[in-house]
Amino acid sequence: LAAKVQAFYDRTKDLTARFRQTYTYAGFGRKQVSSGKLSVKKPGMMRWDYEKPEKKLFVADGTNLWVYEPEDEQAFKQSLSSSQLPTQVSFLFGRGKLLDDFEVSYLDGQALGEAGDLVLKLVPKVATAQYRYLVFVVSPTTHLVKETLLYDQQGGSNHIVFSAIETNPKAGIDDSRFAFTPPANTKIITPGR
Question: Does the reported pTM lie above 0.85?
Fold first, then answer.
């Protein structure tokens, strides 16, 4: 199944979807729910337009990763190669190979996905400070990842549910969708400077 999922994403050049993200903070019992639109284009470009609860933008143009917070009039910029994007999202735009990077097994008894969906547990072969393991909810017919769940080292979780997924649209996604120029008066923060 992991090989079929890999093959599906290897064939996918462009992808658009809606997303709903639930981040659960360990120890606080607090959840933050966000939603918006996602666009992905290989190689290395993606855009997360957060609409709720507040507008926010994550854009990777293939070289840099920008995080723009219009409410605070600030933007964070860092090299995409040095960013610590979790595999649950970097996998979507062609980084890494599931079977090279993870021990993969079926996970039963989880109330995830819809009836018939397959649930995979992915434990990194090389331990990472960012997370303990990932869970992918996979369509048994298309091998599309419908949900991802990341469990961090502190006991928190980041659950993303995708909907209205479209792969390889006929017109493709224009590269300009992944260009970002901070508006005037935006404070730009660059790590290490």
Answer: yes
